[in-house]
What does this fold into?
Amino acid sequence: MGVLRKTKSVRSLLSIIDDTESALSAVDLVDRVSDQMNKTTVYRILERLVEDGVIHSFTGLDGLTWYAKCKSCTSEKHIDSHPHFQCKDCGKTECLEIKVSIPSVPGHKVDSAHLLLLGLCESCRG
It folds into this structure.
């Protein structure tokens, strides 16, 4: 389906995502735009942005869904596959710009993999 028009709501969410270096949880995004749109609208737009290859999502600690900008993805294929890091103290969640080799699995075709590394970020390590 995808985002066909850049409505005010779509522009608002994209602006927040573009202006943020780290990943944002769905809960955080809903809170940030609660005065502009309802929760259902936020989730619908996020789903369309993922379908269009504009952002990618992954599941973090405690089962929350997180969103971050894609680099070279399209609606046909998400090629921005990389691990994510989440700080156990402050909760900061970020994309890691490192390559991870996904092993082949005999008898299976792997389309994607999600790797979440947990620990302490630079600030929390002190």
In short: Residues 39-51 form the longest helix (13 residues).
